[in-house]
Amino acid sequence: MIATISPVSVTEAHPFRQALVDAGLLFPSDVPGVYGRGAAMEAIVAGLDAAISGLGSDDGTSVIRFPPVMSRAMIERGGYLRSFPHLLGTVHCFEGDDAGQERILQQVERGEDWGGEQRLTDLVLAPAACYPIYPASAGTLPAAGRLLDVSAYCFRHEASPDPARMQAFRMREFVRLADPATVEAWRDQWQPRALQFLRDLGLDPRLAPANDPFFGRGGRLLAASQAADGLKLELLVPTSSDVKLTAVMSLNYHREHFGETFAIRTADGAIAHSACTAFGMERIALALVRAHGVEPGDWPAEVRARLRLAA
Ligand code: ATP
Ligand code: ZN
């Protein structure tokens, strides 16, 4: 049987979520973590997008905007299924005949699982904006390495009543590919830069070591070593709750993982290292609403000016 969504899981009491819906910033659906965005929410996200471009523009970046789907083969090669099989969304499609269609219609009618008639396609839903970059960078990098500005609508299978934990959300990232010293220095200079970016928006961020939500027993070890080695740092601010802070940005150092997997080499022939700086667009927008209120027209003038929100 298809798991039916209980109305409680969708409308579970969440005062901040309710405030966002009442203000027309988010439009709920019958699936937890999937929302429409109102005009004011989109204006905030557009303002953030422009402000983020300003942050990275002095670095001579290549800009690439990805669709919400990407190559399944590349996700398989990159090791995502080893680390996060529980978060991945796959694209399945019907390739059958009339009889197959009839079976689907009957199964739907009976409220049964009709997934048996669907086949895995060569696509998955993008789990992060930077993934398509690594296979596309196979080969030798220019002498200075590469710096990219990417974004995508991302999917993660983590249904929640918390409006800051969506199943579909936008991620913007800067990605650096180069030799280890260059990549580490780049990641380090992003620490004060990211803190200042959020402070300029009237937020009070905390920078802390973190780990990704790796799957299973083996995942606990991976998470512990990732945190101990300082490979992932998060910028945390009150978003859905004043008590439990939420990560709105992350600074990630992958060392040689993607360079080795996808044969990316520096100009002198060594395996390239990589790092990325990720911005959760909806989470930053929600943190701004938490800090300044549901009516962007009432936000402090400096914040409105930074986000180019109309007077
Ligand atoms: P978390 O620990 O909160 O699950 P993460 O470590 O998996 O986050 P990253 O992979 O670093 O997150 O993703 C980069 C950014 O994308 C996060 O800092 C956050 O702002 C945003 N993000 C991640 N997951 C979600 C989600 N479910 N809903 C909205 N934004 C998200
Ligand atoms: Zn990334």
Explain what this protein looks like in three dimensions.
By secondary structure, this protein is an alpha+beta fold. 36% of the residues lie in helices and 25% in strands. It has twelve helices and 14 strands. It has helices at 7-11, 15-22, 39-56, 72-77, 80-83, 98-109, 133-136, 180-199, 216-228, 257-261, 281-292, 301-306; strands spanning 26-28, 35-37, 62-65, 69-71, 90-94, 118-125, 139-140, 146-155, 168-178, 206-209, 232-237, 246-255, 264-265, 273-280. The strands form four sheets. The chain has a seven-stranded mixed sheet. β1 and β2 form a beta hairpin. α3 packs across α11 (281-292). The chain is globular, with a radius of gyration of 21 Å. Mean pLDDT is 93; it is low at 1-11. The chain binds adenosine-5'-triphosphate and zinc ion (ZN). Adenosine-5'-triphosphate is lined by residues 128, 156, 158, 164-166, 169, 171, 212-213, 247-250, 278, 280, 282-283.
Say which molecules are bound, naming each kind only once: adenosine-5'-triphosphate, zinc ion
The count of helical stretches stands at 12
Indicate the radius of gyration in whole angstroms.
21 Å
Strand order of the largest sheet: 3-8-9-14-12-11-10
Q: How would you describe the shape?
A: globular
Total DSSP E strands: 14
SS strand fraction = 25-35%
Assign the structural class, choosing from mainly alpha, mainly beta, alpha/beta, alpha+beta, or little secondary structure: alpha+beta
Helical percent range?
25-40%
Largest β-sheet summary: 7 strands, mixed
Taking all residues together, what is the mean pLDDT? 93
Low-confidence stretches: 1-11
Order of helices and strands: HHEEHEEHHEHEHEEEHEHEEHEEHH
Task: Give the end-to-end Cα distance, rounded to a whole number of Å.
Answer: 52 Å
